[in-house]
Predict the 3D structure of the following.
Amino acid sequence: MYRPLGMTVSRHIMDLQRMHPEATGDLSGLLNELIVAAKTISAEVNMAGLADVLGMSGKTNIQGEEVQKLDEFADNTIKRRMARCGYLCVMTSEEEEDIIPVREGYEGKYTLAFDPLDGSSNIDVNVSIGTIFSIHRRKSDDGKSPFGRRNTDIEEEWHPAEGKPGSALDILQKGCYQVAAGYIIYGSSTMLVFTTGEGVHGFTLDPSVGEFYLSHPEIRIPQRSKYFSVNEGNYSYWNDNMRRYINYLKEQDKENGRPYSSRYIGSLVADFHRNLITGGIFLYPKDNKDPAKPSGKLRLLYEAAPLAYIVEQAGGRAITGDGREIMEIEPEELHQRVPLIIGSRYDIDEAEAFLDGRK
Ligand code: AHM
Ligand code: MG
């Protein structure tokens, strides 16, 4: 495979734009702004231990600035940078109750949903965390989406409300209408993985230059895996079908590659990223742990839908386990939770058969 050496993410984005002569460059500009925010967060994450030390005396750092909790820092960094980038009409963050307006006069044609720092309970113990993002085109003025088809068919010029503030209606769109989605993982290195509907590509940050370079072109998830990722501490809260499936994965059956190995970090981005590269199935199913959260823990807009877009573009699949494809769910509210079963296609098909009682 041709592997261009030294391909920066900005050049890659420009190349994608060139493939669409009708493109205005707004999506490229938007992605580039997000990447700057990601680099800022990455630098802060790398300083996490030190920031804590510096923060102990009166919670100000050496420059006299307030030391913020990292998830708050990540949220503010994205929110402030993107509010006046000129390409968005409205945003929503996992950390904020309501929609986030953009600066007046800077309204554009896209919407952004983001989880600023996913897996943030892992910050203090030096485990990988990440930022997830999802981009949609805004809907029309009357709130009705003009896009009845998948994003690849969308008319490039349909954005009549450009120049006006967006609303929650612009945000509440199905995953299949995303125009871009991705994540940044702050791990042993910082990586950006994203799709604009033309495959999934991964870039690694060279911190000495401050640039993301293409390191994982055209990522394809193996169709069948030998890893499962699930919080087995929730076993007693699952329904029988879910329990049967996990028991099945742990049975000895050499011919069919079982038992599977268990891998669970507890940081969705990190668990997802490993499975994307090596193959695997991640499950956060519905459970009866908390009657207020019957759909599990993860959120549709900030976690499930963007990762579903990526996994589908890489040849995998994402479902809820109760008969729905993640990409086809019409969101009803900003912080809607959804069961998530995502990963290698063959494994998802098999899990689906167990969960709906066919197997
Ligand atoms: P967060 O967005 O508040 O960090 O919570 C989401 C995280 C995911 O990264 C991870 O997959 C999940 O919570 C782990 O939950 P649990 O501890 O219940 O296994
Ligand atoms: Mg999260």
